[in-house]
Amino acid sequence: MPEPRFRSSSFKKVNRITIKGRNVIHYKRGRNSAPHCAICSTELNGINISEKGGKSRRSNSRLFGGVLCSSCTANVITLGSRIENGDMKLDDISIKQRKFVMQLVAH
Ligand SMILES: [Zn+2]
Description:
The protein is an alpha+beta fold. It has 3 helices and 2 strands, in the order ββααα. The protein folds into 2 domains: 1-30, no CATH class; 32-106, no CATH class. It has helices spanning 55-58, 70-85, 95-106, and strands spanning 11-17, 23-29. Strands 1-2 form a two-stranded antiparallel ribbon. Helix 2 (70-85) crosses helix 3 (95-106). The chain is elongated.
């Protein structure tokens, strides 16, 4: 049984053979995966997870930055303005987009 501190799923098991020929298990921390868009699940641009620094280096400062990609943000903004003008109804929008359009209209 591994030690309690290694029982987290964030540790990856690595099998190693020592010089004397003993099989041992080493534990390594896995790296975080790159953030993805909440609607189309493409990898987000402008975010470098390995880079350290201020908040502006770790996320985008625009609307829905760090959550949606730029093209999905543009779609949500156009849909939001159409709903505000009364050209479309909320039921005409897909469920994934609806959550973000409602956030935009509420402001
Ligand atoms: Zn997207």
